[in-house]
Design a protein that fits this description.
Blueprint: E1 3-6, E2 17-19, E3 22-24, E4 27-30, H1 33-43, H2 47-55, E5 58-61
Antiparallel strand pairs: 1-4, 1-5, 2-3
Length: 62
């Protein structure tokens, strides 16, 4: 099951991130494979998102 896990560990991190109409908030979100594919592609073009993924704050699974 594809999912996004967004573990917001400090107040410096955004409350939510919007990517092409999809809002990623702290917590666990079950997404379709198409949404997950879109998010994976967007991480390469979204520096803040890429930073959070590389830190392990946001985990893309699926």
């Amino acid at each position: 099951m594809p999912s996004i896990s967004y573990n917001r560990t400090d107040s410096q991190q955004p409350q939510s991130i919007t990517i092409q109409g999809y809002v990623v908030r702290p917590g666990l979100h079950i997404l379709t494979y198409e949404q997950l594919k879109l998010l994976r592609e967007q991480t390469q073009h979204h520096s803040q998102l890429e930073h959070l993924v590389s830190q392990g704050v946001i985990k893309l699974t699926g």
